[in-house]
Write a structure and sequence with these properties.
The protein is of the alpha+beta class. It contains 2 helices and 10 strands.
């Protein structure tokens, strides 16, 4: 499963908030800085990330007609799903992504046998309730050998 990581800028802001909290002389000021830190990291700045993947990342012997989807860890709204893709040595055709609730499903024609397929959800394809978009999410699986 792919997880979101903080950028250098976000880490810098978090560190600065912690230092300010430690250096604050008054208890109320220190508490306010910590509250701000909590809102920054745990609230509206969290990026939508994968909570569940189908098929699982690095799965093997996946059926050629397997359902492909990602369950986001928070409510999301579609921004632009046109670049959602499934890459493989044999091109995957008729890729049609659709978002219902927190689940992004990706319809497709049958996969080729015995190939690694990589699902790509580009950055900013969806946003959370605060307008923060997802980071690029990828995962791969291998289809079952042919007859």
């Amino acid at each position: 499963m792919t997880t979101a990581r903080l950028t250098r800028e976000e880490l810098g802001l978090l560190r600065a908030a912690v230092v300010a909290a430690r250096e604050a002389g008054e208890r109320d000021t220190s508490l306010e800085v910590l509250k701000t830190l909590g809102r920054y990291h745990g609230g509206y700045t969290d990026f939508p990330a994968a909570e569940g993947l189908q098929p699982d990342d690095e799965a093997i012997d996946v059926a050629v007609d397997a359902a492909v989807s990602i369950l986001f860890d928070m409510d999301v709204t579609e921004v632009d799903l046109s670049a959602v893709d499934i890459e493989a040595a044999t091109p995957v055709t008729n890729i049609v992504p659709s978002l219902v609730g927190r689940t992004l499903s990706i319809a497709h024609d049958n996969f080729a046998n015995s190939e690694v397929h990589t699902v790509i959800i580009p950055a900013g394809a969806v946003v959370n309730d605060y307008g923060v978009g997802n980071r690029r999410i990828t995962w791969s699986f291998t289809t079952i050998a042919g007859p």
